[in-house]
Design a protein that fits this description.
- The complex is a heterodimer.
- Chain A is mainly alpha-helical.
- Chain A has eleven helices and two strands.
- Chain A has a two-stranded antiparallel ribbon.
- In chain A, β1 and β2 form a beta hairpin.
- Chain A is globular.
- In chain B, 72% of the residues lie in helices and 2% in strands.
- Chain B has twelve helices and two strands.
- A two-stranded antiparallel sheet of chain B has the order 1-2.
- The chains are: A mainly alpha, B mainly alpha.
- Chains A and B meet through α1, α3, α4, α5 and α6 of A and α1, α3, α4, α5 and α6 of B.
Chain lengths: 266, 290
């Protein structure tokens, strides 16, 4: 590719910098305020402090909401990975009816969450299921299922058919082939899908607000607190959550990307 | 699994179970709720209880009441504007990424996508504090001499919703545009160069047309995410920033009219499906046939 003229490169770099600044400013504010005092829009750089983190450790409401979020996340991951993998195994290699059902699986992910959330809200009411953490878990699972399904299905499609055929040729039963060949090959895709599902569930707000009962997850708790304004310890929480999610996604990338690149090359 | 001879009874029972689950899960938890929801839009509410008689009353109200159609239209215009601003910012950034080499390209792409991982609610809150009267934006504008004194122009109105949604959704525009730019075969650019085209000619005649599918996908993503959001307008919109999502949400809270809310959701779903279809139609990569 020929080098673009200098002026246009400078322009492009400037816009890219602007975009980065715009994207990071909302992250920067709470993280800086978690270590420094901010009053009237200016930062007091002279006295860094960890007091916000200490206060966070004593904020009972937030810790309970955090625990609830983790419980919901783990349940969502288990349900979505099991059912997403089953669905992927079932639809892989099947043509009839697949595109329609696949479309249905993707619907909650494509539709605005307010529609999925309200549809589930009315559904739970009609079948007489009280709003609780169970309804939240169902809502989250329906929402993230498409991601897990797609991740596993893509791995299945990139898996070489010869491995399974070799297993049958060597006299293994369908069951043995599944446990010894198919499942181990899918495991990293399943772990990657699980991490993505957890990350989505961890931050899901709009569906949760609609289908939750008395217990609230962290984003819903924060949403309720936001009307009154946040106490400084929330900034500490934000800094920790950001670190945690970045780590989580780096982990997901590790499970999802290297193997695919490796199979493409071989 | 296709070897009929080696199939054992337990396996057959399992595969039957899987078949039933494969059909039942999507149908029970997605299709049935949506169908009930659609059904609700034909019911009505009388003194706090839902009347299960079919009527088109909710839809008539939506089209005839002077409140709803203008808000609906304004919200569509707002979300189209968000999509356009996002693309104007994301396209140059995505293009810049593709001019970088190897490792840097993906490192910078990751850098621009990381903000997506941050809690949505917290980002809205942080943006509101930046836009507010004592926020950094006003401080900066006053310091630069653009404003005489801090202004309330950027918070609790439609501008605030526009700015906040744009900041939240830019990454969703960067990714599809980057992917479509990256897919353009380098030979085409070299050929254009060899034939004597200038850099801007190559960009306008080769790069831009071939990247339009990515732009269409980006526009459709951003629009759909923006129009479905009710948290942002609720938080930064104040009294004057009234969007369709907020009206819809209020039908399930303070207004307590679920059937009417369901009808409003159907209107929203129609627009969303149209946007997805347009995005799909123009976003399909035609480059594979080259």
């Amino acid at each position: 590719m020929s080098a673009p003229p200098r002026l246009s490169t400078i322009f492009l770099a400037a816009i890219t910098t602007l975009v980065a600044v715009l994207l990071y400013s909302p992250l920067f504010v709470p993280i800086v305020s978690s270590f420094f005092t901010i009053s009237h829009g200016s930062v007091d750089w002279s006295s860094p402090t960890l007091s916000t983190y200490v206060a966070l450790a004593e904020n009972h409401d937030i810790l309970v909401a955090l625990r609830t979020t983790l419980i919901v996340g783990v349940c969502t991951v288990i349900l979505s990975v099991v059912s997403g993998t089953l669905l992927a195994l079932y639809y892989h290699g099947r043509r009839s009816g697949r595109s329609l059902l696949q479309f249905i699986i993707f619907l909650p992910f494509l539709m605005p969450p307010i529609i999925s959330g309200l549809a589930l809200l009315i559904f739970f009411r009609e079948i007489g299921l009280e709003r609780s953490l169970l309804t939240v878990v169902i809502g989250h699972t329906v929402f993230v299922l498409a991601i897990v399904y797609r991740t596993v299905l893509m791995r299945l499609q990139s898996m070489s058919r010869t491995l399974v055929e070799a297993s049958y040729d060597l006299g293994a039963t369908g069951w043995q082939t599944f446990w010894r060949i198919t499942l181990p090959n899918l495991s990293s895709a399943m772990v990657g899908g699980a991490i993505l599902a957890f990350a989505l569930s961890f931050d899901e707000t709009m569906i949760t607000i609609l289908v939750t009962g008395t217990q609230s997850t962290l984003p819903v708790r924060l949403w309720a607190m936001m009307r009154l304004g946040f106490s400084p310890d929330i900034n500490a929480l934000v800094a920790l959550i950001l670190m945690f999610t970045v780590l989580l996604c780096a982990l997901a990338a590790r499970f999802l990307i290297p193997r695919q690149v490796a199979t493409e090359r071989s | 699994m296709s070897e009929a001879g080696s199939t054992q009874p337990a396996e057959r029972r399992l595969s039957l179970l899987v078949t039933v689950l494969a059909f039942a899960l999507p149908v029970v938890f997605v299709l049935v709720p949506l169908a009930i929801f659609l059904g609700y839009s034909f019911f009505s509410v009388d003194q706090g209880t839902i009347v299960y008689d079919l009527s088109l009353g909710n839809y008539v109200r939506f089209f005839t009441d002077p409140v709803f159609l203008p808000v609906f239209w304004n919200t569509i215009v707002l979300c189209v504007s968000v999509a356009i601003i996002c693309i104007l910012l994301a396209y140059p950034a995505a293009y810049f990424l593709t001019t970088l080499k190897g490792r840097w390209r993906y490192a910078l792409l990751m850098l621009l996508l990381v903000p997506l991982l941050m809690s949505y609610v917290i980002k809205i809150y942080a943006i509101r504090s930046i836009l507010g009267l004592n926020g950094f934006l006003n401080k900066a504008l006053v310091a630069l001499g653009i404003l005489q004194e801090p202004s309330t122009l950027f918070v609790f109105n439609m501008n605030a919703i526009l700015l906040t949604l744009t900041l939240l959704l830019i990454p969703f525009a960067i990714l599809p545009i980057f992917l479509s730019l990256e897919r353009i075969p380098q030979v085409l650019l070299r050929a254009s160069d060899d034939l004597g085209a200038s850099g801007s000619q190559t960009f306008l005649r080769i790069t831009l047309p071939l990247s339009l599918p990515g732009v269409a996908s980006a526009a459709s993503f951003v629009f759909v995410l923006a129009i479905g959001d009710f948290l942002t307008p609720q938080m930064v919109g104040g009294i004057s920033g009234f969007t369709f999502g907020r009206i819809l949400y209020s039908q399930f809270g303070t207004a307590y009219n679920w059937p009417f809310g369901a009808a409003l959701s159907v209107a929203l779903a129609v627009v969303v499906i149209a946007a997805i279809l347009v995005g799909e139609r123009f976003g399909r990569n035609r480059g594979t046939s080259v």
